[in-house]
Amino acid sequence: MARLMRAFWGVAILLAACLPGLESVAAEPLVLAREGKPLASIWRGDDGKRAANDLAENLAAITGGTFTVMDWTPETKLPADQPAILVGEAALANGLAALPPSASGDSYRVERQGQWLLLGGENNDGTFFATTHFLETLGCRFYFANPIGTVIP
Hints:
about 35% helix, alpha/beta
């Protein structure tokens, strides 16, 4: 019994160490749209056109609002206090942690920093996978590449 309790507390401490700041993230949700009106803008670099457009289309289907995709350049100044979704190169240049190289060459990362949602990949496919992963967390499902095989909540 004592060994079981030590194992339990070991796992609990490991989880507590791996999840710092979780309570602050849960207390302040990132609101992307409210009552059919988008509150967040979508910014994309040169590499994220397909992913950003697909994201905007699916967010519009979910919320009823029209999300605009804007081109990001290194000179673009994004307000840190307004919700934004940064895709591809825009995310990598604005704080998305560097992606480790993968054998397939298409790794991705989804990360939140303050009012920004950062979606980036090792290449165009990885960036597309990042946006798809995010949409799946919202309840979307993509069974086939047509409207019959797509589920939008």
